[in-house]
Write a structure and sequence with these properties.
The chain has twelve helices and 14 strands. By secondary structure, it is an alpha/beta fold. The chain starts with a strand and ends with a helix. The structure holds nicotinamide-adenine-dinucleotide. Nicotinamide-adenine-dinucleotide binds next to helix 4.
């Protein structure tokens, strides 16, 4: 068995601790069966950190996150902290983690599990077997570009400005993540921009093509305009393996792709930073959903988004692909057995608790392992 992998667990608020607990049971299962071992330590983030330490993310926790091989986060926020000033809100803890770990690549898979095909608003034949991954640039582009602002014109009307800007370095580092992920999956990368009307898009396309030709010639690269990509995602999403795109288009396209799967409680995510000399990347894994205060403390949350985020950690931080597949299959089989939390309940199915779903996934792992 390889040396222990250091995971910092930050359960956070609301249902965060509940879904993280079930996820760590999966990590413990791998340990117990001597398949892979993990050193898991826990820290505070969000409202929990505000209550205990007076800040949404203590410096010491930040340091531990930077030293860890991977961070697993539950969710932050809740009504108790809603009225705090902006700079002290629980969400600032998460933003600080993303900023100081320099997590520039956001990975959002859209995977449809056969038993949940009916939860999508699209026809079963369009989404059955869907498994695509969107890589969104997260720290550049129009959300951060200068100049920006609102000014008043001489005639008294106003003008709002944002600037879409990308440099070669920003494009290359996120494209590289896209190529690397394509190599770990089905070998196809689709790069998305608006090169027909935007210079930044033209640069994006040229830099991605150059990187492909010089370093990743075996990946099947295609280019697509963002408006066409939006259409193709609902027309024929199974044509995609990995999509790489900028911050703005990624924001929109990843939400569109997420809804192909039909359920918030099922959506995992990863955010990756730059690779160091040894190839190790800073990385944070978290479910897409929030702290769900309406169901917190009731053992009613769906832990699968968090468990699937752990599967992403196995795949992308630890290169444990077979183990990641095993978790994905265990989730698939748990759903196949009819186990459902409230958010994905279908007629004739059995409603179970957060812990019950954890039990079912572990039982499925036992059978598969
Ligand atoms: P939310 O995702 O917490 O909940 C939206 C709805 O989906 C709720 O009805 C909730 O019960 C349901 N839901 C969400 N996750 C579920 C799960 N795993 N199982 C079953 N049902 C689930 O979004 P919200 O209500 O807009 O926000 C609640 C709090 O979470 C706010 O404080 C918000 O700021 C915070 N938030 C945090 C994150 C994060 O930590 N990354 C993301 C989004 C929202």
């Amino acid at each position: 068995m390889a040396a222990n992998r250091k995971i910092l667990s930050l359960p956070g608020d609301g249902i965060g601790p509940e879904v993280v607990r079930q996820t760590l049971r999966v990590a413990e299962w791998f340990d117990r069966h001597r398949i892979a071992s993990f050193d898991v330590s826990e820290g505070l983030v969000g409202g929990a950190a505000i209550d205990a330490q007076g800040t949404p993310l203590a410096d010491q926790t930040m340091r531990r996150a930077l030293e860890a091989d991977a961070v697993l986060l539950g969710a932050v926020g809740g009504p108790k902290w809603d009225n705090l000033p902006f700079a002290q809100k629980p969400e600032r803890g998460l933003l600080r983690l993303r900023k100081e770990m320099d997590l520039f690549a956001n990975l959002r898979p859209a995977m449809v599990f056969a038993p949940l095909v009916g939860a999508s608003t699209l026809k079963p034949e369009v989404v059955t077997g869907l498994d695509l991954l969107i890589v969104r640039e997260l720290t550049g582009g129009v959300y951060f570009g200068e100049p920006r602002g609102i000014s008043t014109l001489p005639d008294g009307t106003r003008r709002g400005v944002n600037t879409q800007v990308y440099t070669t370095a920003e494009i290359v580092r996120v494209a590289r993540v896209g190529f690397e992920l394509a190599l770990k999956r089905h070998g196809k990368l689709c790069s998305v921009e608006k090169a027909n009307v935007m210079e930044s898009g033209q640069l994006w396309r040229e830099e991605v093509q150059k990187l492909h030709d010089s370093e990743y010639p075996t990946v099947e690269l295609s280019h697509m305009y963002a408006d066409n990509c939006a259409m193709q995602l609902v027309r024929n999403p199974k044509q995609f393996d990995v999509i790489v795109t900028d911050n703005l288009f990624g924001d929109i396209l990843s939400d569109c792709a997420a809804m192909l799967t039909g359920s918030l409680g099922m959506l995992p995510s990863a955010s990756l930073g730059a690779a160091d000399a040894s190839g190790r990347r800073k990385a944070l894994y978290e479910p897409v959903h929030g702290s769900a205060p309406d169901i917190a403390g009731k053992d009613a949350a769906n832990p699968l988004a968090c468990i699937l985020s752990f599967a992403m950690m196995l795949r992308y931080s630890f290169d444990l692909r077979d183990e990641a597949d095993l978790v994905d299959r265990a989730v698939q089989n748990a759903l196949g057995s009819g186990a459902r939390t409230g958010d994905i309940l279908q007629p004739g199915m059995q409603r179970i608790s957060t812990t019950g779903m954890g039990d079912t996934v572990l039982a499925a792992l036992e059978k598969l392992g």
